[in-house]
């Protein structure tokens, strides 16, 4: 199996872990502090990755720590905001809205780097926004409080993926993975200290099982594979693969939390997923033209 094919497979596997983590997190947090949950999630990820990547950890220098901090800020914001969103909205809905990252990335690149976006990107963006409108806008044209946090988190994740793409082009990010998660653990620790609902040692097995699952699979595994992949795949392409996550998120919410998959969620999610396909298909490709002619 070629390196790219292996990375694609691992990314898709990671999106399955990530999608299910929405339901696991919502169930694990319950009435407990989400900041304490995230602190333990990041801390355990740091401990595990320090062992796995010890040969990189022992050679960490100031530049690796600086890069880790730069990447940690948007990633922490993305996870923090979307975890807050889970407190106020369904896990399946949160996972679909989070998929907007794939459309936000090229638009942010347009704004930051002044690169010209193609017509298909604008069509994809409009399609995705229509899907978001169908999912998020409630009766009397109000929007769920949790959806606002999820949308903000999608912007933060887009910034994170763009930053990873930029830094992975010039350096080996394996040296920065542990510092990145260490900074995230530090951020959540200080926020948890100010949280009046913080209970540092919950007597609840579901809470701790959620911490273990999210730390190992949707944090350590997913973000490590993502960072390595972006040495060979663009931020846009990685974000497209992330669109498998809402599918697994909806399945997980259905089986784990018993959430209903409403027509609004299915229709809006289909539009967001379609927007992703539109943004990625090369309509000038000779293979695509040949395929169209055969049909």
Automatic annotation (TrEMBL):
EamA domain: residues covered = 8-136, 145-278
Tell me yes or no: is Transmembrane among this UniProt entry's keywords: yes
Q: How does it sit in the membrane?
A: Multi-pass membrane protein
The record lists the membrane-crossing segments as 39-57, 69-89, 95-112, 119-137, 143-162, 174-194, 206-226, 238-257, 263-283
Note the superkingdom of the native organism: Bacteria
List locations, semicolon-separated. Answer: Cell membrane
Keyword tags: Cell membrane, Membrane, Transmembrane, Transmembrane helix
Instruction: Cite a single Pfam family from the UniProt record.
Output: EamA
Q: Which GO terms describe its cellular component?
A: plasma membrane
Against InterPro entries, the record matches this protein to: Diverse_Substrate_Transporter, EamA_dom, EmrE-like
The molecule here is called DMT family permease
Q: Which organism is it from?
A: Flavobacterium anhuiense
């Amino acid at each position: 199996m070629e390196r790219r094919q292996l990375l694609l497979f691992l990314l898709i596997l990671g999106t399955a872990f990530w999608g299910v983590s929405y339901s696991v997190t919502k169930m694990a947090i319950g009435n407990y502090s989400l900041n304490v949950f995230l602190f333990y999630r990041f801390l355990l990820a740091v401990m595990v990755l320090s062992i796995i990547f010890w040969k990189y950890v022992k050679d960490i220098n100031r530049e690796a720590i600086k890069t880790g901090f730069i990447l940690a800020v948007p990633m922490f914001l993305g996870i923090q905001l979307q975890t807050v969103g889970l407190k106020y909205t369904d896990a399946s809905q949160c996972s679909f809205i989070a998929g907007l990252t794939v459309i936000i990335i090229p638009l942010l690149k347009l704004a930051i780097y002044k690169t010209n976006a193609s017509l298909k990107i604008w069509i994809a963006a409009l399609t995705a926004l229509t899907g978001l409108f169908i999912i998020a806008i409630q009766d009397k044209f109000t929007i769920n409080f949790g959806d606002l946090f999820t949308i903000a988190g999608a912007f933060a994740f887009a910034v994170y993926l763009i930053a990873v793409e930029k830094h992975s082009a010039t350096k080996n990010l394996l040296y920065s993975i542990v510092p990145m998660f260490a900074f995230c653990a530090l951020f959540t620790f200080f926020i948890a200290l100010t949280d009046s609902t913080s209970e540092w040692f919950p007597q609840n097995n579901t809470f701790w099982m959620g911490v273990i699952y999210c730390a190992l699979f949707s944090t350590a595994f997913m973000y490590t594979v993502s960072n390595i992949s972006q040495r060979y795949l663009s931020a846009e392409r990685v974000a497209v693969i992330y669109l498998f996550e809402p599918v697994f998120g909806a399945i997980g919410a259905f089986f784990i939390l018993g959430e209903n998959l409403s027509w609004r969620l299915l229709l809006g999610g289909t539009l967001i997923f379609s927007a992703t396909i539109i943004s990625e298909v090369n309509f000038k490709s000779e293979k695509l033209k040949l395929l169209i002619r055969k049909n």
